[in-house]
Design brief:
- The protein is an alpha+beta fold.
- The protein is built from 15 helices and 9 strands.
Length: 423
Amino acid sequence: MALILHAGSNNKNAFKPLIAAEYTGVEVKLVESFEMGVSNKTPEFLKMNPMGKVPVLETPKGPIFESNAIARYVARLKGDNILYGSSLFEYALIEQWIDFASLEIDTHTSRWFYPRLGFMVYLPLVEEAAIAALKRALGALNTHLALNTYLVGHSVTLADIVMTCNLCMGFCCIMIKSFTSEFPHVERYFWTMVNQPNFRKVIGEVKQAETVVPVQSGKKPAQPKETKPKAKEESKKETKKEAPKLKVQEPADEEEEAPKPKPKNPLDLLPPSKMVLDDWKRLYSNTKTNFREVAIKGFWDMYDPEGYSLWFCDYKYNDENTVSYVTLNKVAGFLQRMDLARKYAFGKVLIIGSEPPYKLKGVWLFRGQEIPQFVLDECYDMELYEWTKVDINDETQKERVNAMIEDQEPFEGEALLDAKCFK
């Protein structure tokens, strides 16, 4: 007997058990003509899930709801598959990544996407926090995938199915290319997964969103309406009718009031600087020829030693940099985690050497006279480097800054493997 899945054909949560079924050979059928908002409100459906949420799996022993639970059930119905790994340890890792996909990827994507559709109250500060949290999660996922084709082991597991389905909403609806390009290993992983035959059979062709969906007219707290005096009886009816609405709207009112003004970054309270960081970043990006004469000269013309400071960084553990792509990924991860300082910093990190072990050296421009405390607190990579403040009155140090910004090769007598820029 086939298992019956109650959900719409385009529901990303329904994709999870359907893809698992393709891998396990379990027969799962979608109900025909399922209509969200109608089919899930019927008495028959509410007996299976009193919350009225989808999907729900109808089995001979009774219904199962919650998409991850349904996917787990389908994955384990037949024991002769590797969707749950080949050991107890792999089983634990699979469960770990399923939780991560739900709590870190799906949750923050939803908090970004749904308010823009009007399904939730849209609050810019909440959106900002959701995007920051999503970026942090994608950064962690990107680091893991730099060394792994799949989340666990050497083949598709249930963790990959859940992760890909949860990434699907982001890629298809709100995470445009300029956003996901910061996470190249996540991109590679996602497009590899959705083009696997068993995924493609369920999901179909996947296209990435080209624009971020604009904010729609969202749910807003109910406002009292002015009404003309009515007959007593009519007034009583209206009071009874409106009372439940006010009760329902109370949480929304509290949600509107809950966000407090975002505390100012201490760097925003510094005296104004003559140096406009975006002007320098624009000059750096747009200079294609005569770099020394245009960009480097422009940098020192703009530089404000009272409003900004320059710092050299030298990696403490260069002996560990024995594999080129791992070393490059290490630097890429560092720059991703520095995203919190994008308004206040510019940096160059050089990967030096023609053979291992590779050396990592860099120069950073920070707002203020010290390395910002919030950067030291939030970006753990900072403690992996020795930091030395640049003395701009020392021509040797000043020339070293120039060489780093320019990606000069050879640098200090050695070839460059690569150079990464944070701007």
